[in-house]
Structure formats: C-alpha cells, structure tokens
Amino acid sequence: MRQQTWSLVSVTLGSKNFICKLPATDAECWSASTLSALAKAERTEPMRLGIRRLLQEAVALVTLLSLALVMSAGCTSGDTPPAIVTEDHRFLDVTEQTGITPQHLQEKTQDRFMPESMSGGVVLFDCDGDGDLDLYHIRHGLTSDRYTASASAGNRLYRQDDSWHFTDVTETCGAADRGYGMGAAAGDIDNDGDLDLYIGNLGQDRLLRNDGGGVFTDITEASGIDVSGWSSSILFADIDADGHLDIYVCRYLDFDEEVRINDSAGRPEYPAPGMFRGALDQLLRNNGDGSFVNITMEAGLSRASRGLGVVATDLNADGNIDFYIANDGQPNQAWIGDGAGGFQDEALAMGLAVNIFGQPEAGMGIAHGDIDDDGLEDLIVTHLVSESDTLYRNLGDGNFEDATGSRGLAHTTLDFTGFGSVLFDADGDGDLDLVTVHGRVLRGAEQPGATGDSYWKPYAEQDHLFINDGRGRFLLDANSGFSSRTAVSRGLSIGDIDDDGDLDVVIAEADGSLRFWKNQSDAALWWLLEVIDASTNRFDTGAVVEFHQGDAVHIRRVGGGGSYLSASDMRVYFSSTAEVTQLKVRWSDGERERFTVPAAGRVSTIRKGTGE
Questions:
Q1: Entry pTM
Q2: What residues form DSSP beta bridges with 17?
Q3: Please, what are the averages of pLDDT over each run of 10 residues along the chain (612 residues)?
Q4: Distance between CA atoms of 173 and 168, rounded to whole angstroms?
Q5: Which CATH superfamily hosts domain 91-519?
Q6: Cys bridge to 458: 395, 443, 566, 568, which one at CB 3.0-4.6 A?
Q7: Which of 323, 330, 327 is nearest to 345 (CA)?
C-alpha cells in the first residue's frame, strides 16, 4: 500500500485564516475557487459538507501558506476548471429518428410527491437475440392511489427493428408492469441464453422471465420473490460461484407520503431524504430451479441505509464478488464477499465510506472502471449540489484514496446534482472517459435553454462529458453535445446501438422522456465482444477481459451494474489506435484463458473452453 503524504493549505473563512491538512495528492488540485465554494457552502449547509470538522480540527495560525501553494502544484487557477473544446460535437442528438416520442409523459403532482423526482431508469439489452440492442424504459404514471401506473403509462419495451429505429412491443411481448417503476436490470436467471428482467418498484418488485424471442412472463410469485417498499438500483451477480445469477436489490428509504414540506416561498417542495429512515437492501439467492430465497440477514446485510447505486466487483482482489453501495446522506457500504454468500461491510477501513473530509455525502449513482490502466478498478460516486462527485482511486490490497481533486473532478462537479454516471471510452483512444447526468432535487434559478414544462424547468441542469487525458485525469469536454441540452436527467445507459464501433448514450429524464445520443467518434481499431460460458453463468457476468498491447493492459468487466437505476450493454468494448497483441479472460469462476485476438472492426464472440 502506498504511504499517504500530506500538504498544508491555507483557507480563509470569514475574518479567520486556518491551516488545513489535506492528502498531498488532492491538495495539489483543490483550487482556490473550490475551497472558497466549500467554505461558503459550509456556512449555508453545515449538515451537508464536512469542512467545518476539518477547520475545527485545524490549528488557527498566522498565514504561513497562501493558496498560491496549491496553484503552484500544477492546477488551473481562478474560477475556470480544466476543460477542452472539441472542434465538432462528439455526440449527436438522434432522438427524433428513433420513433420513440413522449406521447405519455410521466404525470406529476403539484404537492411534490417525492418518488416522482427520483424515478427514471433505462436498460439496454438484446431482448430477442437478434444481435442488436433493444431498450426497456422504467416509467410511472399516477392513478388515484399514486402507486399504480395508468393504462397509458407504465414501463415500455422498445425493440430495435432498424438502426436507430424502435417499435413499442410492450403489450404484445408481456413486458408491461404498471407498478411505480424505479430501476431495473437484465440477466439470464435460468442460463437459457436470453436475458430476463428484474424491475424495482415503489411497491412490489417484479421478475419477468424471457421465454425466448423477447416474450416475457411474470414469474414473481412462482419464483418466491416477495420484495416491496422502495427499491432503486438492481444488479445481477453470482455471489457464490455456483453458476446461477443472484439478485441484489438496492433499496432507498421507508417512504411516508404524509411527510410534506414547503420552501421559503411557501410552495410545496420535495422532502429531504434525511426525513425518512433508510431501508434494508435485499439479497436473493438463485436456487437454480427458477426459484429464489431471500438471504439478506443470513448473508450479513444487516444495516439499513438509503441506497441508490450499486456495483458488483472485486474490491480487495481476493477473487470473490463484493458489492459497493452509494448511500444518500449516509456512509457508503463496501460489502466484502467470502465467496460462499456471506458479506461484511469494510467500507470505512478501505477508505470507501466517506469523502476526504471524513463526511458522508448524498450518494446517487456509481461509475466503475480502471481510469489509469493500472489493472485496478476505481469508483466514482455522484452527489448533491455543493458536494463534488467523489473519485475513489484503487491503491490495491483493498485500499482506496479520495483522489477527486487531483483527477480534475472537484471544481467541475461542485455546482451540479449528479445521478447516472458511467466510465466508458467515448473517443476511441483506449482509456475510460466519464459521462455524468444531472438534475436538481430542489427548485433553483432556471437555466438558459431549460427544457420541459414549467414544472420541471427550475430543476434542469446540463449533463457533462469528461475526457480522460490518458493518465487518469479528467477534462470537461465543453463541446461534447451533452452540454447543449439542459434537462432533469436521471438514468443513464451505454451501448453500441448501431454496431458501428463506438458507444452511444441513452438518458432517461424525470418527466418520462428519453434522449438518444449517437457517438460520432472515429475509432481506428475497435473490438466489441460477447463473452459466453455455455456451461453455466451463460453471459458470464463478472468476468474480466484483458486487452494487452505490449506491456500495457486494459481491463473491462462484463456487467457489474453501476450508473443510477439503469443497466448498460453487457458486451465488452475496447478501441485504440494500436493493435491488441493478446486477449485474456478471467472467467467469473476464477479460471483464466488466453484467446486469439479477433479481427478488429466487428462484433465477435468469445466462448469459454475455446482458448488456451
């Protein structure tokens, strides 16, 4: 483990000056404007930010250091965050050509029914096995009881019948669910070669089995699943390496619709999550016969928190699946697996529970991936306005550091409320870039160009694309295309929708709209791989593919969840200007295999047992 070093930074708060101790890796890139904003926010939101604790523990001294110390360490000075401006938009809005129109926008209540502000998931998956990506959109539509979708609303299944054109097949394919939809995920629960759907609701969750060809049957009761309350993000993972996908259900809070608040102008506003108790996440073990058993308490998941995002990965490199949970206003959880279905929260010891100031934040979504190609997967958690998103860099041996400042995300994310977030290669250069979508949860000043009706405009914000500089530092792409739209974004999913060798973006907005962004990057060489283990966990969720280029190794994980209420294409994508010299797979059961590198520029299948 790398030894931590510290730097002293001078911060002025009011008429007083303090000397603060920060980890050197982050002190280098906490700019003057960022620290000033944190100090200002601390005066107005003492429960949200932790700098007060930091300042109280610091020793008040005569100013020995100025913030020039921070500037001289190689950061951008002033109020301008690190940014690049591309010559052309990387992404083009192609929503109109998809054939998906917002005919039935989600209904909303004038008394600010809290769940309507949090909903909006999207799943990209091949529902009918024809090789292209289809889409499942989580929606809600209110009836008199608030928890049941009206006949014209509810979740929708869209089948792609031509490049970028979709047809609504919800009713004919049995994919309708008129619960109050929140999140969903796709996984092959019975290893029959097609992807099934788990839907998380405010109310009763549902499990839809794909019977082949994209026709679904609701098997919730038959499978023994009985999960109700406020579910959020969903994830499939094989927790005990028995070859059957289990289900992790992230749950938010114990909602009471009688809790109401008004803003300073006397208008109804959405309640704060801190007004409710957290809910206990649920873990469902797959018995392998189409049934599931709830093992939440048996597995050790005994602490309720306000969970919104979940990732399955190997946090401590012991070969077992672990879960990382983004909690809203409470410490995040790192459930470390023992390989047999038991878990223990080690987030605090691993450096994953709180931010650099020792404070929990309003965790929403999670992005995960290896940002600096050191072979270790890092984590990024999105947060509320006045809390920057937090980047936890993986140091190895189960240890992480908050590297938000040194990686370019401290200042640039401070003024936004983040939800869906995904690490993916946006520009075809081989490293992982970052897309994060935004939307307020409390009214604010209306932004120029805000979309939607008068109800949603005060909540609208711009979405962001950050480009990786090749060393794991992120630069805001000021002309990506995303910043041209100001909306209330929630769910986010990534996949190569048109199989042209780059990854496209779908965003679910709070009003029920979908936004499609076509990637216009021109990758020199690209590989899009379907990873198959026909003998067991068929799509081998949890496997890691290694793309070798000489001494450089780039890793990509199959599945693993992340984002917010959403799920992305499970196929593995890699692009580069140089050839791949070796291709290796670490299968989810721990076996390793080397394969002949497939030809670039096409979709290929990697099958377990056909390598060496």
A1: 0.88
A2: 12
A3: 47 47 47 45 38 35 30 36 64 94 64 89 96 93 56 84 94 92 96 96 96 95 97 97 97 94 92 96 97 98 97 96 98 97 98 96 98 97 96 97 95 95 95 97 91 90 95 90 89 96 96 93 92 91 96 96 97 96 96 97 96 92
A4: 10
A5: YVTN repeat-like/Quinoprotein amine dehydrogenase (2.130.10.10)
A6: 443
A7: 323
